[in-house]
Design brief:
Pfam families: PhoH (PF02562), PIN_4 (PF13638). It comes from Prosthecobacter debontii. One of its GO terms (molecular function) is ATP binding. In the N-terminal section; belongs to the PINc/VapC protein family. Belongs to the PhoH family. This is PhoH-like ATPase. It is a single chain. By secondary structure, the protein is of the alpha/beta class. The chain folds into three domains: 198 residues, 5'-nuclease (Rossmann fold); 65 residues, Archaeosine Trna-guanine Transglycosylase, Chain: A, domain 4, CATH 2.30.130; 187 residues, Rossmann fold. The chain contains 18 helices and 17 strands. The strands form three sheets. It has a six-stranded mixed beta sheet with strand order 3-4-2-1-5-6. A six-stranded parallel beta sheet has the order 14-13-15-16-12-17, with helices on both faces. A five-stranded mixed beta sheet has the order 7-9-10-11-8, covered by helices on one side. α11 runs parallel beside α12 and α12 packs across α14. The longest helix has 16 residues.
Length: 520
């Protein structure tokens, strides 16, 4: 994939293990002082601490996390000047990407603001490493064998990704290894490995694979006596060795044998307590009642209805009931006056081909993206026909009375018009403060960690934020199952007394949907 074909035109860059203390000017200015500069560079290089690495950052890494320049501890960080040129292309965009590009520029200016700071020689970072900008000069580097071979394989050296790759090869000849390219562009990583450059993904905001590999509720084995005591008192204290790494608001299933089990939640005192907020069913107005169909759904309802929990994250494959239960819990609490209204949103990331620009108001533009939420609202609020027995026979010889010529409206339309139910576009959420709302963010796995942070920091007192999604279904080219905003928020907020997480493993939509999610 060429750089122009890279998602959102983000240029891949390298992260290499460089001696940031080494002089870079000899590679830029071919002057009589070149030998003296080389000598000074070699002297500084000899003092490089053993075990440090040099990382070259790709453009997409900086756009993904503007603070990445300070997250390599004692190691050296190099930014090719071609990366700065690419960042300049995005700085005027009124998008999250444009905001990140501007933030990178501000961070670099602040880092090099000291009067004696040298952009090309580098400055010390808070972690004890070094940060500098690297200027690659093809005329200076063309005598290096690895660079000459690279230019033979990739003759179009004017392409930015090829210049960065050549820069990485050139730097590897100037300093001690390891020199590592850090890029979120998989094609760039393949090119780098093809020419012998060590490379890796940006790992700072990635969660452990085990965090997203198992959606089952944790099981804790107890004795029959302990389970009976828990059933009568509603509390159970176990040793740290038996509960493992459970933290506050983690849900578990206490099991005593194959047929005896009870769900429980870890409280702030380290006790396993009974679920207190799981009703048999939820019913909104005259609509259809919804009841938890399995253990995971019961735990999710407990978290959604607990007033002490203001952040709920939920993983689950298609058909597990994430969105329906979140909307049902939110509506029931809005009707119960716990919250002033229900706000729903989701990232605008298309799967496959799109139908182009959508006309109409914000609500009309968002409707195709939020159709699952509208389906849930319609299911929960549309009056149920409770007529029992067979339908009465009608006289087919008498004409039926024509229906009234009134425009059909959905049962939730009046609530939308009154602002009780609000459709929010994430692109307009920056700067808002959202109090006393039940906020549902569907398909949260499409968010980047910074976008998730933006949403979380909008929540004011009295609001509850619910992030639901499936880490296995991602269309955003900048994130994957271990680095998206949903799993990142879950991992960073784990253990906070106001945060809870529930995984859903069993699909309840239909046997066909469950088999499709499991087998296809």
């Amino acid at each position: 994939m060429d750089r122009d074909d890279h998602p959102a035109n983000v240029a891949p860059t390298f992260i290499e293990t460089l001696d940031l203390g080494s002089s870079h000017s000899q590679h830029v200015h071919r002057s009589p002082s070149l030998k003296r500069r080389k000598s000074a560079s070699s002297h500084r290089h000899s003092r490089t601490p053993v075990g440090t690495k040099t990382f070259i950052l790709d453009t997409n890494v900086l756009l993904h996390d503007p603070a990445s320049i300070h997250k390599f501890a004692e190691h050296s960080v190099c930014i090719p000047v071609d990366v700065l040129s690419e960042l300049d292309r995005f700085k005027n965009e009124m998008t999250e990407r444009g905001a990140n590009a501007r933030e990178v520029h501000r961070a670099l200016m602040k880092t090099f603001a000291a009067p004696d700071a040298s952009v090309t020689d580098g400055v010390k970072t808070p972690g004890g490493g070094n940060l500098r900008v690297v200027i690659y000069d093809p005329e200076t580097a063309k005598q290096i064998a690895s660079v000459k071979e690279f230019e033979r394989i990739f003759p179009n050296i004017d392409k930015v990704d090829h210049r960065i790759l050549a820069c990485a090869l050139w730097l590897r000849e100037q300093i001690s290894p390891p020199v590592i390219l850090v890029s979120k562009d998989l094609n760039m990583q393949l090119k780098a490995r093809a020419v012998g450059i060590e490379c890796e993904d940006y790992l700072h905001d990635k969660v452990e694979p085990r965090e997203v590999s198992n959606f089952e509720i944790t099981r804790v084995d107890v004795s029959s006596h302990e389970l009976q005591r828990f059933a009568s008192s509603g509390k159970l204290t176990l040793s740290a060795a038996r509960i493992g790494d459970l933290v506050v608001n983690d849900y578990v299933l206490l099991t005593a044998g194959e047929k005896s089990s009870m769900p429980a939640r870890m409280n702030a005192q380290g006790e396993l307590v009974r679920l207190l907020h799981t009703p048999e069913s939820i019913k909104v107005g005259q609509g259809r009642s919804v009841k938890p169909m399995n253990l995971g759904q019961a735990c999710l309802l407990d978290a959604l209805l607990d007033p002490e929990i203001s952040l709920v994250t939920c993983y689950g494959q298609a058909g597990t009931g994430k969105t329906l239960l979140a909307v049902a819990a939110g509506l029931s609490q809005v009707f119960g006056r716990t919250y002033n209204g229900l706000t729903v949103s989701r990232p605008i990331v298309a799967m496959g081909q799109t139908v182009g620009f959508l006309p109409g108001s914000l609500q009309e533009k968002m409707r195709p993206w939020l159709q699952p939420v509208y389906d849930a609202l319609d299911l929960l609020m549309r009056p149920v026909d409770n007529q029992q027995g067979p339908q009465r026979k009608k006289n087919r010889f008498l004409p039926e009375k024509p229906p009234a010529q009134t425009e059909a409206t959905a049962p939730y339309d009046p609530l939308i018009q009154q602002g009780v139910i609000e459709i929010e576009a994430l692109c307009y959420i920056r700067g808002r403060s959202i109090p006393d709302r039940f906020f549902i963010l569907d398909e949260a796995q499409q968010l980047t960690p910074l976008e998730a942070k933006t949403v979380v920091t909008r929540m004011s007192r009295g609001s509850k934020l619910v992030l639901v999604g499936d880490p296995a279904q991602i269309d955003n080219p900048y994130v994957d199952s271990r680095s998206n905003g949903l799993v990142y928020t879950r991992q960073r907020m784990r253990g906070q007394p106001f945060a809870a997480h529930v995984p859903l493993a069993k699909g309840e939509r239909s046997p066909l949907a469950e088999a499709g999610a499991r087998l296809l």
